[in-house]
Every structure is written in structure tokens, then in C-alpha cells.
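tool_call: predict_structure(chain=1)
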Amino acid sequence: MELTDVLTSISECLHEERVRAGLTLEQLAHRADLSTAHLSRLESGDRQPSIAALIGLSRALGISMSALLGEGKGESAISVYSEDEPTHLANGLVVSACSGFPGSSTLDALRITIQPDRVPPPFARHRGEEWIHVLRGSLRLEFEQETHSIPAGGSAHFDAALPHRLGAEGTTTELLVVAVDAPPDPRNRPLFPSSNLAH
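tool_result:
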């Protein structure tokens, strides 16, 4: 998967899924812990969503991220994904879904390509866990105050509620990212503001 692949927009699908769920902009923004203005810009296509925002929106809508990306797989309880799934641009990353069947909403798997010249975004934080496997290249994973260099074939598993961000070290880097939802802990503070949902 290269940047020359066709990049598709999720703005139309996001609007359709919100309307299908019967939610106003304000209601969905509140559920996904985004500002209404930010969600409006995502729906109009004026802003690219971050991976963390996509995760929050798919969970707030009760759908898989592949459904949010407009990749309906029919009504079967299994979905099969190929290497040439449609790609999407999300906050400077090239993303394709490789998980999700009708009714699934707690696990999301994405294939992500990061270019080495990508400007580092703000740190991301969201509820749940992430597992990352480096398919090619070298990943720079900043997690809290630590920086980890993970070569092709290496993996990382971490609490996604803690600050983290991804970067490519020296060459185009391709990852498999699996995010699993976790129930909110009522003792913890609410989900983090949209400015922290960057990946």
C-alpha cells in the first residue's frame, strides 16, 4: 500500500451513519468526546480524522471502524479482507480497515502506512488497549516519557488511555494496529478532549 493508492473520504459515510443512528451533531460529539465544531468539520470533509477520533466515533455509533469507513461487508457474521482494501487518509496516515463484520464494535484492526516526513501530531489517548505489529520499516512509538524503536517483525501492546504517538524512522513504515475497547471505569475521569486524539 503506497500513498499513490486511491484515498477515499469518510466524511459522507460519517454523516450517513450519524443520521442512521438518529443522532444530532451535538449528541454524537458528546458521545465521542469531540467538540461539535470538530465533528462538523469532519463531516464536511474540512478536516481529516485522527485514528483515535475514528475509534471514538465508531464506538459512539456502535459500529465497526470498517463500517464507518464505508466498507460494508453484507450481513454475514464473518468478513474477509484482502490486501487491496480501499485506503483512507487520516491525519497524515494512510489507513485501510482489516476487521469488522455486521454487529461488531469492540475490536478494530487497521493497516497503517506512515511516511518518514510526517509532522508529529499531538499525543493521542483513548479508552481501551492497542496492539501494534510492524510489517515493514521501523516504528517510533512514543509512550508517556519513553521512546521505543520497533523494527519490522516487532510488536507493542499498551494501555491506549496513556499518551502515545506513532512515527516512521527513516523509511516508509507499515503497521497492523489492533484496538480493543474497554468499558469505562466510573472512578476515572471522562474520555480525553479531541485535541488529544491525534495518533
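agent: The longest strand covers residues 107-114. Proceeding to next step.
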